[in-house]
Design goal:
elongated; 127 residues; homodimer; 6 helices; DNA-binding; two-stranded antiparallel ribbon; mainly alpha
Chain lengths: 127, 127
DNA sequence: ATCAATGGTTAGTATATGCTAACATTCGTT
DNA sequence: AACGAATGTTAGCATATACTAACCATTGAT
């Protein structure tokens, strides 16, 4: 099945860990579950897989991002914030802007994101 | 599981049917399989489900889109073409542009797509 | 008429998620 | 110390896809 959903799911977890860490200083399974609206059990299993892939480190109850996991997470979060701001800037309501940013952040390649950034910044001084 | 992948998958099938129909005049299971790079078996099963949902009509070997299925397909194809053109316009190579368009076409809400269209057309006369 | 190729379906399998239930552990309160 | 709440894990289940293998039906060529 889905390489695509696999990718989305993985990136969502990494991003959620980064967000929770920023928000609370540290990140636990429970925090990620709340952040994503998933059960603790699902998160526990998913994070074990991400740990096996070397993207996450579990230190007792503490969920940490490895260097590569952190790089991923920051990339996704940057895109999330960018699209969220852009969508709000062009008049999309907050809820839709957030939902769409949450999906699009996973869909864009590095190359395309960079070009979009450059293009929009050139055209629209307010961004 | 995934509503997201479910949505992506469904939309990909509808879009593929539309593309094959435009390309060949009619659309068969084999055409959709070739278009998407899936096995005939997978396509056969998937299309039966879409038929049960009322999005597709199977008339002997002929795969047709219902009105609602066609509306979906045309919406996705329109977005695909738009993003493809935009990405190529801002200097992204064809392969990446196509890949990204294929993903983003599923990620954007109606509201956001409309606003992006308006916004970009206002800013960039060449589009 | 026969046999191979083409097209479509069904059955069984594999993978990726997610969920609930049940359980172990730890912590806080009384 | 004891009990209940919170946290995390495991086991078992459900769903959504996709695949291969096997099979049926139609078509076309010899």
């Amino acid at each position: 099945m889905g390489n695509r959903l696999m990718k989305i799911s993985k990136e969502d977890y990494l991003e959620a860990i980064l967000i929770c860490t920023k928000k609370f200083g540290a990140c636990r399974v429970t925090d990620v579950a709340a952040q994503l609206g998933h059960s603790k059990a699902s998160v526990s299993v998913a994070l074990s897989k991400l740990e096996a892939e070397g993207l996450v480190i579990k230190d007792d109850w503490r969920i940490l991002l490895s260097d590569s996991g952190k790089a991923f997470a920051e990339k996704i979060l940057e895109r999330h914030i960018f699209f969220l701001k852009w969508f709000e800037h062009i008049g999309i309501d907050d809820k839709t802007a957030k939902e769409d940013a949450c999906l699009i952040e996973h869909a864009i390649s590095d190359a395309t994101f960079e070009k979009i950034l450059i293009y929009l910044k050139k055209l629209d001084k307010e961004l």
